[in-house]
Every structure is written in structure tokens, then in C-alpha cells.
């Protein structure tokens, strides 16, 4: 089966021409399936953004290969197909919005693809409705809140009809309400529109119901599994500077006290159920 | 240096079509040595409020007393106020501008007109306090990591030896490790120097652990004020304005509803564990 994204022994360094080797990505092998919701976590400098930029050919491997829908990212003939198939949303919404009106901003990508005007209009409407921003189509972006701007940036990607959307800490600069808006928007795009989502984040609670969670440390994948498989590694996660949900930490402490608690509890509901069954 | 704010209101662009009421009749007090958390979502008025406390903004109406002195009085020198009240802005790393870390930290004390020896002493002390190695003094502030830049900005304020330290969202955009480091550092500085510390944040988990008092802002008003326990008892109110309580506090509330003997105002995992262990031992013995 063809994977949306497939990395084969991917290694990368920023200054490959220099004598001293400083690998920022070390032998990464990941295959992402269509329609999945994948979370990537890791502390600052672990290589998450560098990896994300390989997923749409913004960076090319120093060693190894990256394939997007089977297309080799080093094959320049496929550059635009790759960028169309895998869209990247960044941390700071202010750096991503280019036009003076929301609608024009969303149309920017499809216009560059040379899509006919009628279809562009359809796509813009679809994309803005998908992120719940259609009423704001005539607004200047600077009038919007951070969460709203981020949703417009996501609409700009959706309008390209991508297979896959990669979000690099899209909520890091937002307050709790903005975060909730953005996260529920991308969950909906994943569930209802079947778009593959790769979400890079520091916020563990944003990935507790992902299909798969990948943990990066020092350029390597150190954990890869379901949220339950990953978060039960409390000791390792803490050692590499990541936090786990408070109830997961509690489960581990109760275990140490000699109680037979499942170590993969992630939510309040699960803990209540265990304690009061 | 206690702080007393009385009926403070502030309107941006007053008298124009763009007028925005950012603070609406805010009243509270802060005592010496208190660690205060101010929480609220974007636009609730947090930054506007703290900018009043060092005289950067003048109230549209209301009074602000610092150590009994009304700083809204025209006769009060704002330079004196700013000497005592140090404010670290949000994303302060964007305000670093000098060519070396030393010069950046020295900027404030230099403006205070201190002697060169005193300035040097204070800069190095401040670097020690925030944990920036003295060897980095001659490096450019732009060559170090984001977390370090933020520490440099904090050191610049500490070098003025303020009696009141205010930090506007000092953990915004940092990862969990960077966040922990900065928060622990702020706590450590507070415990050692006992200055009033005011920490603005939109994360309850950050604030719950350290604050003696929490002020919850919503739409320019104080929605709830009190100790963390008092504030978290208002969980429904908090959730309604989109803030929520720490996960461990919601667990305690849910357990209490199910009849488990646990207070609903639990703040830490350790506390929760104590009650849950008691509960589990109790039910097992039945
Ligand atoms: N443009 C760049 N040039 C040189 N080094 C870089 C560049 N961008 C990132 N790095 C380095 O690569 C490593 C991984 O960074 P990054 O991928 O941004 O991690 P993360 O997104 O997990 O914080 C870090 O050591 C960082 O300093
Ligand atoms: N310089 C300004 N000019 C006009 N309105 C402003 C300005 N700064 C803030 N506001 C408005 O004042 C209100 C409170 O903002 P602020 O104090 O920055 O809140 P917070 O720090 O809680 O996010 C918001 O409605 C905001 O849009
Ligand atoms: Mg990054
Ligand atoms: Mg603010």
C-alpha cells in the first residue's frame, strides 16, 4: 500500500558541507497511513520542525529518502504535486497570512496552482466553512484573534485539497480558547473529511486521542505507538523533559504504593471509572 | 510595598469610535511578599492591568496606591515608581537590542545613574540569579536559545533591584522543560528575595502551584479572586469563561460526586494521592 508519507533512513544536517558532523535527524523510518491522526512530541531542539519540513520538501534529506504519496521529495519535477499533497501550517499565524482580506488569503494557494476562478471560489467557500470562518470572509486578517487567524491559515491549506496537513505547534502562541478552536477544527477535518493530520505539539492533552503518537529526542524517534502505549512510559518521558497528564502521573504513583492500577490511564473519566468500579 | 488598586477603569482610544473598555472597576490588594497569579484569556485585560502598576498607563478612573502613595498623582515621579516596580513584558526576547548580553542587562541600572562598579556588580549578580553563565557576558544575546534570551530579559529587570516583580506570560511559547525551568527560577527568586511577585499566565497548572493569591480576569473585570483553593472551588464559573481547572482538581471533584472522601479543592498530585490511598485502603478492608 502507498503511504501518505514514508521516510527511509532519513538523516539530515543543516550544514552538510562542513567537516564536523552534526546530525539533527538520525535514521528516521516512519510510514504514515491515510486518514490517521498522528501526534509528534518532543522538547525544543529535538528535531520536530526539521522533520516536518521534510514532509513537504522544504528540506531535503542529507541521507535516505522521503516519499510523499510515493513521490521522491528530491525529484524536482514533483515539487508542486508534493506541496499540494502535504500542506504545512506554522506556529505563528501572523507570518502566514499574506493577503489583506481573509477570502483572498485562502485563494492564494489555489491561484498559484493555476486553478480556474470558478473552482477557486468553490474551494475557498468549502475551506472557510470547514474551519468555521466563512462569516469572516470579508474581514482583514489583523482584526481576527490568534485562533481565528490560525484557522484561516488552515483554510488556505485545505483549499489546496491536500491529502495530508502538517501542523507545527499551531497552538503554541494561542490562549486556551484559541487552542480549543484550532484543535477541534483539525479533529473535524480528520474525522469528517478524512484528511491525514500530523500534529506537532508540546501539549500532551492535544494528542491523547490521536491514532498514533511519536516522541522525538535528539533527532531520533524514541517512542512510537498508541497514546496509551506512549504515555505509560512516564519515566522516560520525564527524563527527556516532557510531561504526562496529571492522572497518568497519579496512576504511576499509586502503583508505587502497591495498588494494582492500570498504567495507561489518560483521562479523568478513566481514573474515576477505575477507582469507583 | 503593598499594592492597593481601587475602582480602576481604563479605556483605550477614549472618545473615538475605536474606544475599548479594557478594565472595568477593578479593585484588589496585594500584601508584602505575596506571590500573585493573574489569569484570564487573551483580551481579558491582564496586560493592561499590570501596565498600570508601574505607571506605563494612566487610569481613566480609579486609584493605585503603592506603599501608600497614589501613583496616579501627577506629583509622583514615574521614574521612582519604575525603580521599585519591575515589569518583564511578554516575549521580552524581542526587546533585546544591545550587542552583548552584559550591555543588555546593564541598560536598566545604567538609566538609574548608578556607578560603573555598582552596575557591573548588579549585572553579574542578576546573571547568577537567572542562571546565565558569566562567561556569556560578551556574547551577543541573539546567539543563545529562546529560553536563555528570556532569562536575559528577566535579569535586566532584576538588576534594577525592584521591590515588586511583574512578569507578563513568561512561559508563553516555551516547551514543558523550558517552562518548568523559568517557573522554578521565578519561584526561587521570590522565596529568596521576598519581593512581591505577580505572574500573568493563561495556564492554571502553572499558577496553581505557586500562587498565594489568584486573580481571574474576564472581559476587563475580576471574575474570581482568592487563594488557589478558593478559586478552584468556582470550577463551573472558570469553565464557563473557558479556563478550566487543573486535571487533578477535576478528578477530585468527580470523585467527590461519587462519594469518595476527598476535598474538591485539591491542587497537587501528592495531595490527591493521599486521599485516594486512604480511600483504596478503606474500601479494601470492607
Ligand atoms: N536553520 C537552521 N540552521 C542550523 N541549525 C538549525 C536550524 N534550524 C534548526 N536547527 C537546529 O536543529 C536542531 C533541531 O531543531 P528543530 O527541528 O527546530 O527542533 P524542534 O522543532 O523540535 O524544536 C536544533 O539543534 C536546532 O538548533
Ligand atoms: N494598544 C491598544 N489599543 C487599543 N486596544 C487595546 C490595546 N491593547 C489592548 N487593547 C484591548 O484591550 C483589551 C484588553 O487587552 P489586554 O490587556 O492586552 O488583555 P490580555 O493581556 O489579557 O490579553 C482587549 O480588548 C484588547 O483588544
Ligand atoms: Mg519546532
Ligand atoms: Mg497580554
Automatic annotation (TrEMBL), chain A:
It comes from the Bacteria. One of its GO terms (cellular component) is ATP-binding cassette (ABC) transporter complex. Keywords: ATP-binding, Cell membrane, Membrane, Nucleotide-binding, Translocase, Transport. One of its GO terms (biological process) is cobalt ion transport. Its main location: membrane. SMART domains: AAA. InterPro entries: AAA+_ATPase, ABC_transporter-like_ATP-bd, ABC_transporter-like_CS, ABC_transpr_CbiO/EcfA_su, Co_trans_ATP-bd, ECF_ABC_transporter_ATP-bd, EcfA_1, P-loop_NTPase. Signal peptide: none annotated. It holds the Pfam family ABC_tran. PROSITE patterns: ABC_TRANSPORTER_1 (PS00211), ABC_TRANSPORTER_2 (PS50893). It is found in: Cell membrane. The keyword Nucleotide-binding applies. It is a peripheral membrane protein. Residues 5-243 form the ABC transporter domain. GO terms for molecular function: ATP binding; ATP hydrolysis activity; ATPase-coupled transmembrane transporter activity. Belongs to the ABC transporter superfamily. NCBIfam families: cbiO (TIGR01166), ECF_ATPase_1 (TIGR04520), PRK13648.1 (NF010167). Probably part of an ABC transporter complex. Responsible for energy coupling to the transport system. This is ABC transporter ATP-binding protein.
From TrEMBL, chain B:
Its main location: membrane. One of its GO terms (cellular component) is ATP-binding cassette (ABC) transporter complex. It is a peripheral membrane protein. Pfam families: ABC_tran. Residues 3-244 form the ABC transporter domain. It comes from the Bacteria. SUPFAM superfamilies: P-loop containing nucleoside triphosphate hydrolases. PROSITE patterns: ABC_TRANSPORTER_1 (PS00211), ABC_TRANSPORTER_2 (PS50893). The keyword Transmembrane helix does not apply. Its EC number is 7.-.-.-. GO terms for molecular function: ATP binding; ATP hydrolysis activity; ATPase-coupled transmembrane transporter activity. Keywords: ATP-binding, Cell membrane, Membrane, Nucleotide-binding, Translocase, Transport. It is found in: Cell membrane. InterPro entries: AAA+_ATPase, ABC_transporter-like_ATP-bd, ABC_transporter-like_CS, ABC_transpr_CbiO/EcfA_su, ECF_ABC_transporter_ATP-bd, EcfA2, P-loop_NTPase. The keyword Signal does not apply. Belongs to the ABC transporter superfamily. Energy-coupling factor EcfA family. ATP-binding (A) component of a common energy-coupling factor (ECF) ABC-transporter complex. Forms a stable energy-coupling factor (ECF) transporter complex composed of 2 membrane-embedded substrate-binding proteins (S component), 2 ATP-binding proteins (A component) and 2 transmembrane proteins (T component). NCBIfam families: ECF_ATPase_2, PRK13637.1. PANTHER family: ENERGY-COUPLING FACTOR TRANSPORTER ATP-BINDING PROTEIN ECFA2, HEAVY METAL TRANSPORTER. This is Energy-coupling factor transporter ATP-binding protein EcfA2.
Amino acid at each position: 500500500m502507498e503511504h501518505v508519507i514514508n521516510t527511509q533512513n532519513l538523516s539530515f544536517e543543516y550544514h552538510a558541507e562542513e567537516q564536523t558532523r552534526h546530525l539533527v535527524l538520525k535514521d528516521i523510518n516512519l510510514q504514515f497511513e491515510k486518514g490517521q491522526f498522528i501526534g509528534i512530541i518532543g522538547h525544543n531542539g529535538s528535531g520536530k520542525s526539521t522533520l516536518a519540513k521534510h514532509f513537504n520538501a522544504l528540506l531535503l534529506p542529507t541521507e535516505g529518502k522521503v516519499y510523499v504519496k510515493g513521490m521522491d521529495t528530491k525529484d524536482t519535477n514533483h515539487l508542486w504535486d508534493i506541496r499540494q499533497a502535504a500542506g504545512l501550517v506554522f506556529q505563528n499565524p501572523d507570518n502566514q497570512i499574506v493577503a489583506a482580506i481573509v477570502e483572498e488569503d485562502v485563494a492564494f494557494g489555489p491561484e498559484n496552482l493555476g486553478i480556474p476562478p470558478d473552482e477557486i471560489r468553490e474551494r475557498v467557500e468549502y475551506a472557510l466553512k470547514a474551519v468555521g470562518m466563512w462569516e469572516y470572509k470579508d474581514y482583514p486578517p489583523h482584526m481576527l484573534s490568534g485562533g481565528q487567524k490560525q484557522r484561516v491559515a488552515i483554510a488556505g491549506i485545505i483549499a489546496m485539497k491536500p491529502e495530508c496537513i502538517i501542523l507545527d505547534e499551531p497552538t503554541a502562541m494561542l490562549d486556551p480558547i484559541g487552542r480549543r478552536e484550532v484543535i477541534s477544527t483539525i479533529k473535524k477535518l480528520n474525522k469528517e473529511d478524512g484528511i491525514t493530520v500530523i500534529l506537532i505539539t508540546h501539549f500532551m492533552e492535544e494528542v491523547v486521542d490521536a491514532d498514533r503518537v511519536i516522541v522525538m529526542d535528539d533527532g531520533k524517534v524514541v517512542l512510537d505507538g498508541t497514546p496509551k502505549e506512549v504515555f505509560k512510559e512516564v519515566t522516560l518521558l520525564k527524563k527527556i523533559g516532557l510531561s504526562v497528564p496529571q492522572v497518568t502521573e497519579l496512576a504511576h504513583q499509586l502503583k508505587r504504593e502497591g495498588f494494582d492500577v492500570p498504567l495507561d490511564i489518560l483521562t479523568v473519566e478513566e481514573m474515576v471509572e477505575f477507582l469507583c468500579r | 510595598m503593598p499594592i492597593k488598586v481601587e475602582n480602576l477603569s481604563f479605556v483605550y482610544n477614549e472618545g473615538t469610535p475605536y474606544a475599548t473598555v479594557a478594565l472595568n472597576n477593578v479593585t484588589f490588594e496585594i500584601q508584602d511578599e505575596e506571590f500573585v497569579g493573574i489569569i484570564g484569556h487573551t483580551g481579558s485585560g491582564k496586560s493592561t492591568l499590570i501596565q498600570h502598576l508601574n505607571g506605563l498607563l494612566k487610569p481613566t478612573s480609579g486609584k493605585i496606591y503603592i506603599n501608600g502613595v497614589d501613583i496616579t498623582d501627577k506629583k509622583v515621579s514615574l521614574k521612582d515608581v519604575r525603580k521599585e516596580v519591575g515589569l518583564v513584558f511578554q516575549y521580552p526576547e524581542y526587546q533585546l537590542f544591545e550587542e552583548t548580553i552584559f550591555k543588555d542587562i546593564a541598560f536598566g541600572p545604567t538609566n538609574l545613574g548608578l556607578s560603573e562598579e555598582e552596575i557591573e556588580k548588579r549585572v553579574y549578580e542578576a546573571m547568577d540569579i537567572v542562571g546565565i553563565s558569566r562567561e556569556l557576558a560578551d556574547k551577543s544575546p541573539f546567539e543563545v536559545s529562546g529560553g536563555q534570551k528570556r532569562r536575559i530579559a528577566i535579569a535586566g529587570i532584576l538588576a534594577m533591584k525592584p521591590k515588586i516583580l511583574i512578569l507578563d506570560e513568561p512561559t508563553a511559547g516555551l516547551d514543558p522543560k523550558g517552562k518548568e525551568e523559568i517557573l522554578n527560577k521565578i519561584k526561587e527568586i521570590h522565596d529568596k528575595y521576598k519581593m512581591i511577585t505577580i505572574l500573568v499566565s493563561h495556564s492554571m497548572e502553572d499558577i496553581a502551584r505557586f500562587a498565594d493569591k489568584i486573580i481571574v480576569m474576564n472581559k476587563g473585570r475580576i471574575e474570581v479572586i482568592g487563594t488557589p483553593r478558593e478559586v478552584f472551588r468556582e470550577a463551573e464559573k472558570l469553565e464557563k469563561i473557558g479556563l478550566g481547572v487543573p486535571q487533578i482538581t477535576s478528578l477530585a471533584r468527580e470523585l467527590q460526586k461519587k462519594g469518595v472522601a476527598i476535598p474538591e479543592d485539591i491542587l497537587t498530585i501528592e495531595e490527591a494521592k493521599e486521599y485516594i490511598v486512604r480511600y483504596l485502603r478503606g474500601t479494601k478492608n470492607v
